[in-house]
């Protein structure tokens, strides 16, 4: 369908075949293949939360090509469900390598996991080359019966 026809059909039938404002392909059942990458320039933000607890189900290099953040939060802590996903962490490296500019990026893992430790050690040289810093938490917050690592981010 030509772009002008697609545009008209979206306006005449708003919301149909859209998921979170992104055009979907109803014939596909795969989450990654059902989302088309929006055209246009990348979006620059200070802080981005990697979707779905850093699961590989719907985050790939295209996310990191389009959403360019100074800080990315990685919150996965469920190895049985592939969270965080090594593939997503690798996608960050691949996506950022195509930015064309060497902006500082800080990755903030909310949990100390084997996946993030191995990824950090195995790709440390590439991280340095791409100006990516992984922030280790040095503080702990204690609330009622729970304690967890914390990071302070200043803008």
What do these coordinates show?
- One of its GO terms (cellular component) is microtubule associated complex.
- It comes from Cinclus mexicanus (American dipper).
- The chain is α/β, with parallel strands linked by helices.
- The chain has a domain at 43-149.
- Helix content is 33%, strand content 24%.
- The protein has a 4-stranded parallel β-sheet with strand order 3-4-5-6.
- Helix 5 (86-96) runs parallel beside helix 6 (114-129).
Q: What oligomeric state do these chains adopt?
A: single chain
Q: Biggest sheet, open or closed, and with what strands and sense?
A: 4 strands, parallel
Task: Return Rg in Å.
Answer: 18 Å
* Adjacency order of strands in the biggest sheet: 3-4-5-6
Spatial gap, N to C terminus = 44 Å
* Helix fraction bin: 25-40%
Instruction: Work out the helix count.
Output: 6
Q: Tell me what portion of residues adopts beta-strand conformation.
A: 15-25%
Residue runs with pLDDT of under 50 for 5 or more positions: 3-34
Shape field? globular
Biased composition (Polar residues): 22-36
InterPro entries: MAP1 (IPR026074), RibonucZ/Hydroxyglut_hydro (IPR036866)
Protein name: MAP1A protein
Organism: Cinclus mexicanus (American dipper)
Draw up the topology in text:
Blueprint: H1 3-12, E1 18-19, E2 22-23, H2 31-34, E3 43-49, H3 51-54, H4 61-66, E4 67-74, H5 86-96, E5 105-109, H6 114-129, E6 132-134, E7 139-143, E8 146-150
Helix pairs in contact: 5-6
Region (Disordered): 1-37
Protein name: MAP1A protein
InterPro entries: MAP1, RibonucZ/Hydroxyglut_hydro
């Amino acid at each position: 369908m030509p772009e002008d026809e697609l545009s008209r059909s979206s306006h005449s039938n708003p919301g149909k075949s859209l998921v979170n404002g992104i055009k979907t392909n109803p014939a596909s059942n795969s989450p990654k293949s059902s989302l088309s990458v929006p055209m246009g320039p990348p979006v620059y933000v200070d802080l981005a939360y990697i979707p779905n607890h850093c699961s590989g189900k719907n985050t790939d290099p295209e996310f990191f090509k389009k959403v360019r953040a100074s800080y990315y939060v990685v919150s996965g802590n469920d190895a049985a469900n592939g969270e965080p996903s090594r593939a997503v962490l690798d996608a960050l490296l691949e996506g950022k390598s195509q930015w064309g500019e060497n902006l500082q990026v800080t990755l903030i893992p909310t949990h100390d996991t084997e996946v993030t430790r191995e990824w950090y050690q195995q790709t440390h040289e590439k991280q340095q080359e791409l100006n990516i810093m992984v922030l280790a938490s040095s503080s702990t917050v204690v609330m009622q019966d729970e304690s967890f690592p914390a990071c302070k981010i200043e803008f």
